[in-house]
Fold these 4 entries.
Entry 1:
Amino acid sequence: MSMAGNLRKVKDLSRVGGLRKVARLAQRRPRVDLSHPARSPLGSSVVNCVTYRDGIRVPGCGDLVDTVERVRKTGDGFVWLGLHEPTDDEFAGIAELFDLHPLAVEDAVEAHQRPKLERYGETLFAVFKTVCYVEHEELTATSEVVDTGEIMVFLGQDFVITVRHGRHGSLGPLREELESEPRQLAKGPATVLHAIADHVVDEYLNVTDAVQSDIDQVETDVFTENGARADPGRIYQLKRELLELKRAVVPLARPVEDLATRPIRVVDPEIQAYFRDVLDHLTRAREQIASFDELLNSILQAHLAQVTVAQNSDMRKITAWAAIVAVPTMVCGVYGMNFKHMPELEWRYGYPLVIGVISIACLALYRGFRRNGWL
């Protein structure tokens, strides 16, 4: 039985000794790195559990409770526990072991939170919205452009707990990148928080670059010769997806600014300097999204204007042809009243004369409308 499976049972244990017994059972099976976009194939929410000392990964997680107690006793190193969409039962024992606040635990389990930064005693709780660009061959009125998820981070003096929600945003590659720089990782759990924030914000920039390509394509289609016939549903869909991206990016500005400027006990001042760089990237992403929103509004207004112009052009053509048709209709209507005494009824050249007059009048009207751009 895996450590992940055993942790589900900790809610039934009333003492830490019981939790220690559950954690020891994890040693019967080799640890498996389950860092990937989907849920664990073992049917558990636990993705990984790693201990770091002096920035170097300690082989094996061993007894979770013993490891945490040893780290706290020596003040050396920290534990990084990664979870993916845990349930209340799976998270209960972990919350008890690390003394996590119930409100933060509830937010981490339920998800669907706004990006934020909260402090509960000695623990820092941060929420990040992750985004992913959804590839598509052609943008339609129903295309999904942006997919969102969440990463919650519990940060203490000697632990980091990451809770991930969604189909993307795996932290496996990020963990490997951090492990390749032990000097940076040795600065403590705040390094992990910065790496996650930097990773999330960089992904914002990647998504905005991809969305810009879709906007450019829509803009090109709208301003072509037949732009009035372009599907406005694509523009509305892009605006909806851009709104989803905006909800992830804009609220994160205040938490990142706090991490970069305000003194926080669990965040080393040296790490705060790195958060300023994250804030710069986040500002760039916010500005891009704001410009995209304005550009889409302009494209939509231009499209509506093109539709109006096309409708006016059609109405002018219809009016012109109606005026041309009105001439023979009027003449034929007059001579169709069947009065006995009418001029030219008995005249030999009356019929050719009337046809000639109708033809000349229609031709004159056609040339006049053509010259004025109505036809």
Note: Confidence is low (pLDDT under 50) at residues 1-43.
Entry 2:
Amino acid sequence: MSTARAERPAGPVRSNWRIRLRRDRSLLLMTAPAVVLLLVFGYVPLFGVVTAFQEYDPLVGVMQSQWVGLDQFDRLLGDPLFWDAMQNTVYLSFVQLILFFPVPIALALMLNSVLSERLRNFVQSVVYLPHFFSWVLALTIFQQMLGGAGALNHFLRQHDIGTWDIMSDPDTFALLVTSQAIWKEAGWGIIVFLAALSAINSELYEAAAADGAGRMRRMWHITLPGLRGVIVLMLVLRLGNALSVGFEQFLIQREAVGRDAADVLDTFSFYYGIATGDYSYGAAAGLFKSVLSLLLIWGANRLAHAFGEDGLYRK
């Protein structure tokens, strides 16, 4: 009995890598500077992590420095100053997560409800602007407004009311740095949420309005569910970056409010590592923070998957 071999349907012809390279050369040229910057400032410095396991001496270099294993981490975990910085970092991260994270969402919802495109563009430009200020300029503005000789205390003195130097008060430092972060970064943070709002099908709003749903019901049943995936994604990223509460912001204000209130993990690595020449100790503190951040983002992503969301990637 003869059997006829079935002919396979001709599949799509795959272009080789040279053809794809020629086809996508414009895109590759556009991304090349970003890739180079990422390699130089993101991946090449990772080789310096080995100094956390050494007694690093810059005069002899990494290859010749003495290997001490986990001694730097034993020293780190036994340092009360490190645990003070860890406590401050966790507390400030929690305060910023509760008070800062909802603000860009609320701003995006308000801007999306503005009907006048000219007014919307004006408000967007105004709230975006502080993001481009350096922390030195931003804190100078706060100092001029809330400092001991600032506008607020000048007003209080004119009305014979007791003054209050908020910029040097350690008891309200957490609220101060959170308000600074909101003023500077909340406007920039709405970009992703505005993009997600523009992707929601407008016919859903029209159908809901035809059924008699008011603005609040449309927001609750259409807008917020449409934003849920993006909110979860940004929350996962926020948790992964929770231990990096802002180096420059705290470095500039540390002397004003004191070490007990303003020392976080980043400033701890700088003051007790780089500034004192104890580079291995600072590298150990930075590596410890990076590992904790990795565990946080992994746990948050697993939690997002447990609630049926994509998180950083689709499971």
Note: Confidence is low (pLDDT under 50) at residues 1-6.
Entry 3:
Amino acid sequence: MTLRLSTVILPVDRWHEGGRAAWQRAEELGFHAGYTYDHLSWRSFRDRTWFGALPTLTAAATATERLRLGTLVTSPNFRHPVTLAKELMSLDDISGGRVTLGIGAGGNGFDATALGQEAWTPRERADRLAEFVPLLDRLLTEEAVTQRGTFYSADEARNIPGCVQRPRLPFAVAATGPRGLRLAARHGQAWVTTGDPKLYEDGTPEQSVAALRGQIEKLGTACAETGRDVTELDKILLTGFTPERNTVLDSLDGFVDFAGRHQELGFTEIVIHWPIPDSDFAADEAVFEKIATEAVAQLG
């Protein structure tokens, strides 16, 4: 399968001062998809400009024609399945069926306490995701849903006419643990990983590849347990969080080598960050555009 190359555009620019231009340029460069983070704020950008994911994607949908759009990733930290389903159905309609929902358990960042709650433990986040994803699945595929859950409930929630994409827009489930991988196997059309966080600071590229190989093997086990063929799922690598994080976009040759190693593991899509000056995602824009337009052809 030909490797797809996508980008993630953080919502850090005013729409009329560079925001729209970035999404349109992403389409011009031929990226498969343009994603954005679904956070209320994030790390070093907490005291900088940061806009909402779904309004940004809605605007991007009206400014582009072919580019797929999505979140990497949405989490239960400040979302509820009932309201999220309505917004996603609307976005899928506005975009003409170009939306993918990246979804995961979330973390302990600023989103985790912004609504005034205590940050959930990893087990609590996993518990909530395990209830969130199946309910969201129902909400996007059934005309009316009533369900009483421990964390999330719906009472005659309606989403008519449903998604443009049938039976619903695709889910890309971010997971590395057994419970999340089972959710990906049951409900996902794709699986997302950023690699092994334990290797981020001091790991080697070789260790990272081995860890990713292990994650894919565990995904295969989860799929087998649910009676699903693991090849049915796209496998998405969000770059920037592996030991090569600072060098992936240094050169076309270097990126092709990196992408080729991960394509051999079974990844079908690699996502690179749109350059942001004075940040962890700073990169040479000319090299970035060269990678966007030439790398996939070299990978075959």
Note: The chain is about 40% helix and 15% strand.
Entry 4:
Amino acid sequence: MNVRKKRGVMIALAAAVILMALVCLFIGSSHMSLGDCLRALTKSGDPAAVRIIWNIRIPRVLAAVIAGAGLSVSGLMMQTTLNNSMASPSTLGVSNAAVFGANLSIIAFAGGFLSTGNNLQSYAVDANPYATSVMAFLFSTASILLILALCRIRAFSPNVVVLAGIAIGSVWTAATTVLQFYATDVGLSAAVIWSFGDLGRATYRTDAIMFVVVALSTVFFLLLSWHYNALLSGEATAKSMGVRVDGLRFASLLLSSVITAVCVSFLGVIGFVGIICPHVVKKLLGQDHRLSIPASALCGSLLLLAADTLSRSLGNGSALPVGAITSLLGAPFFIAIIFSKKENG
């Protein structure tokens, strides 16, 4: 594909993100007309419509754009550094660790279940959503550092990283199961609901935090795009070109996992974005990371915006968890990748 066509694909992706963001902003379960939405954007008209647009829909759209971009870029970086087309932000067990941290916070600490028991009203008063997000982030970050430390001791190869991630992720899943077994009914319900990927819990503050992490990490990846291109030719070739492969892999996996940890800690588990979008971008634009990194960010934003719009359209008055929509889209895509690899092999 020549430069003009690649530029056209990038412009089309950017335009699609803008268009889908507007669709996502104007379509929802409240069934407001286009005129109501436009008046609400100018903070005129019905006060309820103004609150819906400015306090609910705009933070939600921003969260979809930022988290979708972050999860997609994370997937691309993991696939490149691990040389594994099936790699995704959940490869290192980040999501599993975040779910355990959130469950621990909700069931035992932040939710106050040690004192509130099955009193749902007390939970609603005492629960601290930021404490839950902090616990989820801390455990997911600790899991990342543990896995990378183990890989440093053993051998920092892609296979070791993947196997260590699977093993540690299984431990977090087992610990979550034990914790939920001893939870009260309300605690269990709240913990399970948290694990659903839900953009509805986004606020301007959480959007700002996610934006800083995603933007800085993406800039870092872009600055090293030449190194990632060299890594595609193999470790030996990359080292001969002056690339410090182990250091690059360590930093890339750490930053990719931190992006995932931040997004998951605020929004819950949103799967398959990091698998679907990088593969689509590679098909459209090839492997050059100078293009595939920004294109993956745009594609991730587009996918999560579309999934959120669909989830709110199908909810019949309430939005379905967006994580369920992305999983429904991602599962057949994942199977298609497996069969295509088998055929090509």
Note: The chain has 16 helices and no strands.
